């Protein structure tokens, strides 16, 4: 079942073309990876999907219905949750307070139902494979990967059908990036659609089902996993022809530098003719 469909979507900021003719499908139980270097248009695509900005051209459908969002709340009401790279957490607050931040559970006379929130946070994190000793510890004491996973579990708990993950592994080491990738796979196995924004094909390929590669606001490739290898994806990301030209240029510079060093050595009498 297709949860989200973008068809030839475009976005302009005045005379600047941020996106043009970009298409993307996200189905339930599928990870769609959006790759691109800085300035490729990934952030603009996130803002359109999450309801922060309107698209100027093309169509945006959620479960088969055309939509034009006026705010992220409207997207969230339809089950589209975005986890941004910088994470909207309060470092000194406990994990459970951050889990329910903005959606606190209350009981009689408006009091916080602390017992319910602690218990629910613990159980939801366990379901995602995160076993915290104490949900009362400040979330700032968790690793970057664990904080990302708490944000993912929170979105799932509050009814997300589609998770939009903005560079969740960008600032993480190898081990912590692996932790986040494992939870992305778990979200897919739970039937969610996932949009995984990244600039790293080595993180995208193991978990992805579809791959959209952007460059300067345009799609240069949109492939399923069976139609592309990791090496081909890396070449598209890096710009195969540009890398070849760079390699030739570096080789030329290296040869020239070596020749100059040899001449200097002869002139100084360090080497014989």
CATH homology superfamily of the largest domain: P-loop containing nucleotide triphosphate hydrolases
Q: Name the helix and strand elements from N-terminus to C-terminus, one letter apiece.
A: EEEHEEHEHHHEHEHEEHH
Please identify the top-level CATH class of the largest domain. Answer: Alpha Beta
Low-confidence stretches: none
Query: For the report, how would you describe the main beta sheet?
Result: 6 strands, mixed
| Count of beta strands | 10
Number of helical regions = 9
Strand content is: 15-25%
Distance between the termini: 75 Å
Please identify, by name, the CATH architecture of the largest domain.
3-Layer(aba) Sandwich
CATH topology heading of the largest domain: Rossmann fold
Please give the share of residues in helix: 25-40%
Overall shape: it is globular
Class from secondary-structure proportions: alpha/beta
Mean pLDDT: 86
Q: Radius of gyration in whole Å, from Cα?
A: 23 Å
Write out the strand line-up for the largest beta sheet, numbering strands in chain order: 6-7-8-3-9-10
Domains, number: 2
Could you write a compact summary of the structure shown?
Helices cover 39% and strands 24% of the residues.
Structural account:
It is a single chain. With 273 residues, this protein is α/β, with parallel strands linked by helices. The chain has two domains: 2-94 and 158-238, 3-Layer(aba) Sandwich (Rossmann fold); 239-273. The protein is built from nine helices and ten strands. It has helices spanning 42-49, 72-77, 95-99, 114-127, 144-157, 174-189, 201-207, 230-238, 240-267; strands spanning 2-13, 16-27, 30-35, 57-62, 65-66, 80-83, 162-166, 193-198, 210-215, 218-224. It has a six-stranded mixed sheet with strand order 6-7-8-3-9-10, with helices on both faces. A four-stranded antiparallel sheet has the order 2-1-4-5, with helices on one face. Strand 4 (57-62) and strand 5 (65-66) form a beta hairpin. Helix 5 runs parallel beside helix 6 (174-189). The chain is globular. It starts with a strand and ends in a 6-residue tail after the last helix. The model has no long low-confidence stretch (mean pLDDT 86).
